[in-house]
Amino acid sequence: MHRPSILGNGPKRLVSAPRGCRGIVTETDVESARRYCLKQLQASDYDAHLIRRFMPPPVQDTYAALRALNLELVRLPEMVSNPTIGAMRVKFWHDAIDRTFAGQPPREPICILLHKALRDLEQRTGGVGGSTSSTKSMKFWVSRLIRTRERHMDNRPFATLASLEDYAENTYSTIMYATLASMPLRSMHVDHLASHIGKACGIVAVLRGVPVLAAPPQPVRSPSGVETPSRSQALLLPLDVMAEEGVKEEQVFRQGPSAPGLQDAIFKVATRANDHLITAREMLKRLKAGQDPGHEFEHQGEGEHHYVDEESDAARDVRRGFGVLLEAVPAAQWLLSLEKANFDPLSGLEFQHHPAESHVPPQIHSPEPLVGAVATMLYELIAIVRPGNLTEVKEIAQTVGSLVLRNGGVIRGLSNWGVFSLPKPVSVHQMKHTHGHYFVMRYDSSAAVHHDVRSTLRLEPRMIRAAHVKLGDGKLETVSRFGPPRWRTQGSEA
Questions:
Q1: CA angle 368, 374, 377 (to 5 degrees)
Q2: Where is the composition biased (Basic and acidic residues) (predicted)?
């Protein structure tokens, strides 16, 4: 009688199991992953939570996984204490997505739910060439989303309004393309509509993030137990628009909605988002009437925008993809609310349930001006550096300035006083000094950042002494009387 060889077959079966998984993904795993993703959307992206219900049932899991992934990437800068950890986390997502599309998802809820959606897509299409093409398109779009989020992790402002549109195209429009590919629906007209709507959604997300990123950052607790700010304050409005309207970052951080030109700049950016929505509405009317969309699709031929049948039934395709196009509704409603608030993004508009371009705890969303929320004081630093090398003085001043700016502070002024004799000889770091190079810096920062500045200078071997003075009582009316530091002396060494 033939007996199966345990030594021959057992190890082979173990090797064939996907690495990083417990052999297979069970229905319990999928249900747990689905609950996780839906909970994330309900708590942090309620618009997407509602829109998911209008998606075709086979696509709902895909949509939930993609929107949950977008949330994870948006929140990443807030969750890490330094850029290196953020880069490692992004690398994890690159590898996780590659493994998921290779059929070996890691034990991560988003990847498990996306893996389930890919298997469902394969079953719906019978595993033929259409499934392979759709899966390839989905992987392209998801990878582009991660790459774009990685490039914008440092919250750099956009150079131009056109670059903001490119960012929106590579994020929110890209999520819509991936969702359409999972149906599968490859239609130039629907992709064209998704491009305009996604650009509007991306611009709206940046505008909704203005009061979030302009507010002081929430601290992140490092493994050593020290709480450090995760980011610096930022204003992501396009630089060309800010220059045209005379908007200055520091004034926005200090004065909030009363900063000169802020509302005019918000109006100009919001108008571009509204233009995309108007264009999408006009296209829908023309397509339903059996006409051409009225203008060419500017991204045709790029990436996965290749179409075999460009003359397909546009009205039918729009009906199939209409759930995806509903992303336009919350964007249009928010723009209407912004208009009623006279384009003041800090006027108490609802931010809690939308993935603005930074996600922080709800208490940061307040209709009060930012001045009331900025817990900073004005400090004056008088530093004495060992003499003889001006480069060392510049390096120390730059170190202190970078520490303040990275953590949301403001440098009020810097003055180089030069070399003076010390009141009495000072021995420090096994060296005796009779002269020192003085410089003075005034800066606004929180007490925690001020403590970090003191600790940094205390450990600096090139420092002789450092004196710190708190100026004023922290109120804007008081600290505004203090300008940059000046040095008045009649001494021969001045």
A1: 145
A2: 293-312
The answer to whether the predicted template modeling score (pTM) of the entire model surpasses 0.85 is no
Secondary structure, 3-state, 94-143: HHHHHHHHCCCCCCCHHHHHHHHHHHHHHHHCCCCHHHHHHHHHHHHHHH
102 Cβ contact list (under 8 Å, min separation 6): none
Backbone angles phi, psi at 445, to 5 degrees: -160, 170
CA distances (Å), origin 251, targets 1, 148, 216, 339: 88, 29, 14, 22
**300 φ, ψ (degrees, to nearest 5):** -60, 130
pLDDT in tens, 251-267: 888 777 788 888 899 99
User: To the nearest whole percent, how much of the chain has pLDDT over 70?
Assistant: 79
Q: Which residues pair with 305 in a beta bridge?
A: none
Look at residue 429 and give its three-state secondary structure. coil
Paired with 428 in beta bridges are 431
Nearest to 220 by CA among 90, 404, 44, 86: 86
Domain ranges of the chain: 17-222+231-359, 375-479
Counted residue by residue, the chain has a size of 494
Candidates 126, 112, 118; CA nearest to 27 is 112
Please give the CATH superfamily to which domain 17-222+231-359 belongs.
Farnesyl Diphosphate Synthase (1.10.600.10)
Residues 422, 384 contacting (CB under 8 angstroms): yes
375-479 CATH:
3.30.70.60
Tell me the average pLDDT across 330-342: 90
In the predicted model, is pLDDT for residue 221 greater than 60?
no
Q: CA–CA separation, 198 vs 179, rounded Å? A: 12
**Nearest 5 degrees, angle CA 205-CA 171-CA 39?**
70
Please check whether residue 355 is in contact with residue 201, taking contact to mean a CB–CB distance below 8 angstroms: no
- Is residue 126's pLDDT more than 50? yes
Local structure of residue 156 (DSSP, 8 states):
P
